[in-house]
Amino acid sequence: MNKKIVARIVTMAGVAGLGIALSGASATAQQEFGSPELVAAAKTEGKLVYYTANFAEVEQQVIKEFNKRFPQIKVEMVRAPGGQLITRVKTEAAAGKLIADVVDHSDRALMADLVDMFQDYAPPNAADYNPDAQISPRLWPRATLVWSIAYNTELVKEPPKTWMDLTKPQYDKMTGQVFAQSGGTTWTRIMFERQVLGEDYWAKQAGTHPILYPSGAPMADSMVRGEVAMGPLLYNAIYPKQKDGAPIKIFFPPEGAPVNPYASGIPKTAAHPNAAKLFLNWCLSKEGQTFMIKELGNLTSLKVAPVYPEGFDPKVVKVWFPKFDEYVKLHGPWVAEWDKTFGYRQ
């Protein structure tokens, strides 16, 4: 056979083989987020309504990244603080008007009371998740947040190095605190302070007259503006500020880093269940978790973390998870005691 013809046949075969390989790689990538049938059905639905208690600016970045992979699906976000979001879900459900396709919440105890409202769901990589991070097979730790201490470098020349340092008299009226009733993530921190740092820690901290905030977002903004100098903050609330160039330093104290997995699920009444599944599948995938760790400062409840946030050394940082039975049982009396200690009234 003519050598030129042979060479051409070999080249064409190579191109065809490459095409098949790329097609296979693309199919594998799609299977990571769901079957071809699920993806097609989700694209047909074209939208989902997403209720979340997380920070709006953080979730807008997640939605934007999701849409890079699936631009055909519009995500309509409804953001509300923890207690308000649960009230809205209960009220709408009782009236038969719940429009959420996904509910994402920081307080697993509050979500546990609503578990029968959610449909059976599991992501393709369900086996890769730590079962201790779940309260039900229907609810998944889409986000896993970690507490840190942050300070404004222009205001603090002798920065704290530990949780106990935040009780020093020299920091009087310089610290900020998110109050205990703000949601599940803050309740996790409150539990950690009392169980790990000591029963008198709250009183010592209250003695420095901290400024109280309804959530981490306004406290992080105040720290950037210099209205408060330092304090405990969720890493994902302050890390984006540091990344944007704000004069902020963040560290994970040696006594431990409280961690709070979220609970996310799809209501049985979801009008766009396939789009909801695809969105959660992507968020819970290695791709989604890697994005939320690297860009937002989250941790992950995957058994094997793909990466860690900046400044987080898993060999050094002591991760602290609350025991769920205590998380539920102690909430009422301990929050009431915290409110009294800090002089907080609703």
Summarize the structure.
With 346 residues, the chain is of the alpha/beta class. The protein has 13 helices and eleven strands.
Description of the molecule:
The chain is of the alpha/beta class and 346 residues long. 44% of the residues lie in helices and 14% in strands. The protein is built from 13 helices and 11 strands. It has helices spanning 3-33, 36-45, 56-69, 82-94, 108-112, 184-197, 201-206, 216-225, 235-243, 273-284, 286-296, 324-329, 331-342, and strands at 47-52, 74-79, 102-105, 144-152, 176-178, 211-213, 230-234, 248-251, 257-261, 263-265, 319-320. The strands form 3 sheets. Strands 4, 7, 8, 9 and 11 form a 5-stranded mixed beta sheet that branches. The chain has a 4-stranded mixed beta sheet with strand order 2-1-3-10, sandwiched between helices. A two-stranded parallel ribbon has the order 5-6. Strand 1 (47-52), helix 3 and strand 2 form a beta-alpha-beta unit. Helix 2 (36-45) crosses helix 10 and helix 3 packs across helix 11. The radius of gyration is 23 Å and the shape is globular. The relative contact order is 0.17. Residues 3-27 have low confidence and may be disordered.
Number of strands: 11
* Shape verdict: globular
Proportion of beta-strand residues: 5-15%
Oligomer: single chain
Spell out the helices and strands N to C.
HHEHEHEHEEHHEHEHEEEHHEHH
Structural class: alpha/beta
Q: Report how far the terminal alpha carbons are from each other.
A: 89 Å
Helix content: 40-55%
Would you identify the regions where 5 or more consecutive residues have pLDDT less than 50? 3-27
On the 0 to 100 scale, the average pLDDT is 90
Largest sheet: 5 strands, mixed
Using only C-alpha atoms, the radius of gyration works out to 23 Å
Total helical elements: 13
